[in-house]
Design a protein that fits this description.
- Helix content is 0%, strand content 51%.
- The chain has no helices and eleven strands.
- The chain has an eight-stranded antiparallel barrel.
- It is globular.
- The protein starts with 9 loop residues before the first strand and ends in a 5-residue tail after the last strand.
- The relative contact order is 0.21.
């Protein structure tokens, strides 16, 4: 069976926000090569601690999606031109780090930069380096592995391998 396995669950508590992590010892994701803990290149997903992510729909100069991954007190952010639930591969842009407040925020963005609406949030395990990202997402709708590989100054190749994307 692919996707999360195990019974019970545990809660990840950070900055007053509680996130349910399925499975007795946390999520067990994947099948085959996408399974958590399988090496892909030099990254190993199972060795990383659990952190939070959010996917925001951002209405400003058109519509795009912001994928934000919590790391070291900030949100590492990528601008996606398409919804990853509908388009699993694309070229994306790395944006400056954002404040952790965006994990729980919906509404207008400062300096008249439109507004954001949360599409999904949850926990992730994985590795983030300056050249690549491999993270297993355990969200309300996004469940699977994200692979990001730097291809230019701010351009990255994005791939989402869904394990049970739900709408």
């Amino acid at each position: 069976m692919c996707g999360p396995r195990g019974g019970g669950g545990r809660r990840l508590e950070r900055n007053g926000v509680s996130t349910l992590i399925e499975g007795a010892a946390g999520p067990v994701l994947g099948c085959g090569e996408e399974a958590v803990g399988v090496k892909r290149g030099l990254e190993t997903v199972e060795d990383a601690s659990v952190a939070r992510f959010v996917l925001l729909e951002h209405h400003w100069e058109g519509v795009h999606w912001d994928l934000m991954l919590e790391q070291e007190g900030v949100l590492k952010t990528w601008r996606l031109p398409k919804n990853p639930l509908e388009s699993p591969t694309m070229v994306v842009q790395r944006l400056p780090d954002h404040r952790l407040a965006y994990l729980d925020y919906e509404g207008p963005v400062s300096k008249n930069r439109g507004y954001v609406r949360r599409i999904d949030r949850g926990a992730y395990r994985g590795q983030i380096s300056p050249e690549s990202v491999v993270v297993a997402l355990e969200g309300e709708r996004l469940r699977g592995t994200v692979y990001l590989t730097k291809t230019g100054e701010e351009e990255w190749a994005f791939e989402f391998r869904s394990e049970s994307a739900r709408e």
